[in-house]
């Protein structure tokens, strides 16, 4: 496997999203041919929630997962956490009428929350952008209550031969499409490279178990172009 940190660091990732935050949702549309919206709805639909739960929406981006969570259950508290200030504030006015939401600008490696304080930790298409992944997973485990769930939706390198051939052809065109629609190809070059150089689904599952999560499972979407991870912080 390639060294996934050879190009990835906090300042670079921030620079990428500083240049893309205004059209971030369009960027995801290009990356997934628009299907990320369906995948995110499926992702949120699988989250087990009860009234008055506290949920972290990590690497929240422009807040689309938080909006879906609000539609699912308005009685819960949502904590949006996003390391890029511009991204966090892009659509913040849309949440003003919802009183049970907080917005924090913070990194996944240093979450400003107490131990055992949340019921669910969600991260959507953000795991591969974290510079110190093992530390971030330990932080997720720390802040989750016993019995709490870790849910992750992420793009992955396609391994099935036919799908991989199709995806590789499309991936090569993504930076050019970014240039057309966003007048900047660099964020798209970074994102396609980040998928190619990221860990496999099995490696992420192992990392989750290594920090203490149990009952870890994975659900592939569209032949493994994306996957949902489920893990639990179980009672002693």
Gist?
The protein has 9 helices and 7 strands, in the order αααβαβαββαβαααββ. The protein has helices at 10-18, 24-32, 36-45, 64-72, 85-89, 133-143, 161-182, 186-196, 201-210; strands at 54-58, 77-81, 101-104, 118-124, 144-155, 214-221, 226-232.
Can you describe what's shown?
The protein has 236 residues and is of the alpha/beta class. It has a single domain, classed as Vaccinia Virus protein VP39 (Rossmann fold, 3-Layer(aba) Sandwich), CATH 3.40.50. It is 41% helix and 20% strand. The protein has 9 helices and 7 strands. It has helices spanning 10-18, 24-32, 36-45, 64-72, 85-89, 133-143, 161-182, 186-196, 201-210; strands at 54-58, 77-81, 101-104, 118-124, 144-155, 214-221, 226-232. It has a 7-stranded mixed beta sheet with strand order 3-2-1-4-5-7-6, sandwiched between helices. Strand 6 and strand 7 (226-232) form a beta hairpin. Helix 2 packs antiparallel against helix 7 (161-182). The termini are far apart. Mean pLDDT is 85; it is low at 1-7.
